[in-house]
Amino acid sequence: MKVARVYLRVSTDAQDLERQEEIITTAKEAGYYVAGVYREKASGARADRPELLRMIADLQPGEVVIAERIDRISRLPLPEAEKLIASIQDKGARLAVPGIVDLTDLADQAEGVAKVVLESVQAMLLRLALQMARDDYQERRERQRQG
What we know:
Strand order of the largest sheet: 2-1-3-4
CATH superfamily: Resolvase, N-terminal catalytic domain
Strand content: 15-25%
Number of strands: 4
Largest sheet: 4 strands, parallel
Number of helices: 6
């Protein structure tokens, strides 16, 4: 059985998580048992989010973390974002986020150079997505500052 933990996040109290709630239904329709739903109203540019930390603590090997977009998980600077993702992967879990191709199964089946290439491409795609989420955060802050 595929087991998922769903992470939903908005940045402010004025925002609503309702738009992201459909992810739960989508996960179930895709054959996942949803072991937990973690709802948070906090900036993705902070690492000390209680629900995110609780989700990571709850993770079991083989589980999948599902989020609407990578920026729901992190808008941290790249080194911190990579540590956050590593804490998920160190638990034996993986990410399922739209827009990020998951090559894990292919890499697990591959050998030699093909395995190294697939793992490298997966890491590069994830780093790129994390950096783009951070860049978007910084651009939004600058626009807000300018009025």
